[in-house]
Structures are given as structure tokens and as C-alpha cells.
Amino acid sequence: MNRRLYGTLPDGRPVHEYTLDNGRGLTLRAIEYGGIITELNVPDAKGQGANVILGFATLDDYVARNDPYFGALVGRYANRIANGRFTLDGEPYLLAQNDGPNSLHGGPRGFSRRLWTVDAANDTELRLSLVSEDGDEHFPGRLEVKVRYALTAEQAFVIDYEARADAPTPINLTHHNYFNLRGSGSALDHELTLACSRFLTTGPGLIPNGIAAVPGTPFDFRGPQRIGARICEGDAQLLAAHGYDHCFILDAADAQRPMPCATLRDPASGRTMDVLTTEPAVQFYSGNFLDGSLRGSGGQAYRQGDGVCLETQHYPDSPNHPEYPSTVLRPGETYKSTTVHRFRTT
Ligand code: GAL
User: Fold this and answer.
1) Residue 38: CB partners within 8 Å, gap ≥ 6?
2) Cys-Cys link to 150, which of 158, 176, 262, 272 (CB 3.0-4.6 A)?
3) Which atom of ligand 1 is nearest to the CA of 79?
4) Which domains does the chain show, CATH number per domain?
5) pLDDT by residue (tens digit) across 74-121?
6) pLDDT (tens digit per residue) in 216-228
7) Which helix (H) or strand (E) holds 60?
8) How remote is the CA of residue 251 from the centroid of ligand 1, in Å?
9) Residue in 256, 234, 245, 239 with CA at minimum distance from that of residue 206
10) For a pocket test of ligand 1, which of 70, 97, 103, 105 has the largest count of ligand atoms closer than 8 A to its C-beta?
């Protein structure tokens, strides 16, 4: 395990970067700020490594410019809560709003913008924790969160999440890596497979407003499809979101056992990533808001589709949808979630 000073926050607090290495070409770098993964190096068939995630070159960039949430841990509630409002056990709550009237990714000071504590680290594992106090971004209850990043000998990068609260609260944790398995250029020519026959349609502000079946639509990724192949079709859902930015529902979900969710493959390098998760859904986001105004770690400008997110999670706006799987964590319960990213070459 390798630890170094990565930078200093505007308030003077130091931020360290940790390097994990599985000894088989898979390496990961992560910092305490936002639990951000700054680099994930994955070998191709010839053993040639490439950094497969988008990110910035400096801490200052992550602090000042990370509106895309590059590489970050997201919480207390990933994705959107309509108008920042919900009612829990008869109590109305109004969250910090940061996406028009909506609450996005936990609010303006969500977990992606916090300094996490490193509880333990070794060559293949990093354990992070964060305490989110009662009233944090106006969420109820004190929440203790633990996240573990691990690299396995089987070429997998695993994220385990755990949390406990002292009062009922909604919770939806995810990770916001933008993947580009070639390491540069566009990810729109990657092939994507999603084990999902249904997705949530969205209305104004990308708030879910229904469930649709994928057959016969550009949302059908049940077999491998080039991401860019149908992204410019005149489909109303694609037009409104400027691409893919939708929650897909797993056909087979199991909260106890990571289930197949997605496969992303770069035909040029052969790098292939299987995503398995205990979550019931995945937000597939094709990096639509990347407009060339941000410069990445390699100096390049990031444009739409240069990286794609596969954010395993519960459904957006669940606190306002009793018909969705519940996101409420109650005192005495333990929130647990696991997502596996398994790399191979094809
Ligand atoms: C995604 C979300 C997008 C956008 C992005 C951050 O998770 O689905 O709509 O908000 O984060 O730029």
C-alpha cells in the first residue's frame, strides 16, 4: 500500500491518495476527499494497462469543478428527489436543493464533497468512513457510513457499502465512475449489455414518471449494443435527456448476492467489464452534460460520451414512490450494498 499527500483543501486539511495494486496489473488510486477514485488501471489482452476512468489532474479541480461527480462516492441519496421534498412516518422534509428545485446526489454538500476518514488500508483494500450528522443537507438522523474498495486476484474491483442510522432516513449510496475502457477518446463505440427489460421514463428535471418496457426501443440493451448506435434517434426520452440518463431495472435482483447487471466492452482494446450488484437498478448515464469545458487528467477536454456511468442504486425519487423498493433505513437495521466490477479481455 502506497500513501502520499495528494493536496490540501482550501481550509488547510491535507488529503492523501492511496494506491492499491493486485499484483496482476489492476491498480487503483483513491483520495480521502469524496472517496474519489482518481485512477483505475486495467490491462488489455497484451497486458498493456490504461486508466479506464475520467478524472482531473489536481485536488483543486476536484474541489472547484467536480459538477460531473467524477469518480466520487455519492450519498446520502444518489440521484434525484423531486423538489427536495418527501414525507417519512408522517413528517415532511425539505432537503437542500441543488438541481433546479430538486435534490441531486445528496445536495450541494453531499458525500462526494466530504473528507472521508481512512480506517484501514493495505495493498488491495481501502476502508473509508464518514459520519453524516442529523440534519446533514436536511436529512433526518445521524448516519454512519463505511465503504470498502477492494481489488481481488480475479481482476475485480469491489465496492462494499454499509450504514447505520439513529433515526429513520432514506439512503441510496452509489459510485460515480465514468468508464472509458480504451483510456481515451469516445466511449460511445463501447458495447453495452444490460440485464434489464424495463426502465424508468423521466419527465421535467429528469424525475421518473413511469416504467416502460425496452423491446423495440433504443433502450433495449438485453444483447450487446454499441452505445452510440441509437443515441441520436428521435426518441422522446433520449431527446429530453440529451442521451441516456435513465434508471434501468434489473430483471433479477438479489439484495444478498451480487447479480449480473451490465457488461461494457471496448472492441478496440478488448477490455471488458462485468458489473454485478445487490442493488435493484442501475442508472446508465452517457455523460451527456460533458460539453468540452473540463480538462481531464491527461489534459484532454471531455465531451459528451467520453465516459459512461453505470451507477448501481435504488430507483430515483423512491421516497415519493411507495410502489418502488423502499430506501428507508431504520435504527437497528444495517444498510448493506455490494457492487463488483470484474475485468477481462475478449
Ligand atoms: C448522473 C445523473 C445526471 C447528472 C450527472 C452529474 O448521475 O444521472 O443527470 O446529474 O450525474 O452531472
Assistant:
1) 6, 17, 29, 30, 31, 55, 56, 71, 297
2) 158
3) 7
4) 2-345 (2.70.98.10)
5) 999 999 999 999 999 999 999 999 999 999 999 999 999 999 999 999
6) 999 999 999 999 9
7) helix 59-65
8) 23
9) 245
10) 105
Nearest protein Cα to ligand 1, atom 6: 68
Predicted confidence (pLDDT) at residue 18 exceeds the cutoff of 70: yes
Amino acid residing at 291: D
How many whole angstroms separate alpha carbon 214 and alpha carbon 194?
Answer: 11
Tell how far the Cα of 344 is from the centroid of ligand 1, in angstroms: 27
pTM passes above 0.85: yes
Q: Which of 176, 246, 314, 341 is catalytic?
A: 176
Percent of the chain at pLDDT exceeding 70? 100
User: In this structure, what are the phi and psi dihedrals at residue 42, rounded to the nearest 5 degrees?
Assistant: -130, 130
What 3-state class would DSSP assign to 65?
Answer: helix
- Ligand 1 cavity residues, CB under 6 Å: 67-69, 104, 206, 245, 283, 285, 289, 309, 311
pLDDT tens sequence across 108-141: 999 999 999 999 999 999 999 999 999 999 999 9
User: For residue 326, what pLDDT is reported?
Assistant: 98
Q: Distance between CA atoms of 195 and 221, rounded to whole angstroms?
A: 8
Is 176 in the active site?
Answer: yes
Q: Give me the DSSP letters along 128-164.
A: EEEEE-TTGGG-SS-EEEEEEEEE-TTSEEEEEEEEE
Q: In angstroms, rounded to a whole number, what is the distance separating the alpha carbons of residues 233 and 224? A: 18
CB count within 10 Å of CB 321 equals 16
Distance 187 CA to ligand 1 centre (A): 17
On the question of pLDDT at 1 being above 70, the answer is no
For the stretch 216-260, pLDDT in tens is 999 999 999 999 999 999 999 999 999 999 999 999 999 999 999
From atom 5 of ligand 1, which residue's Cα is the shortest distance away? Answer: 68
Rounded distance from Cα 135 to ligand 1 centre (Å)? 24
Q: Whose CA is nearest to atom 11 of ligand 1?
A: 68
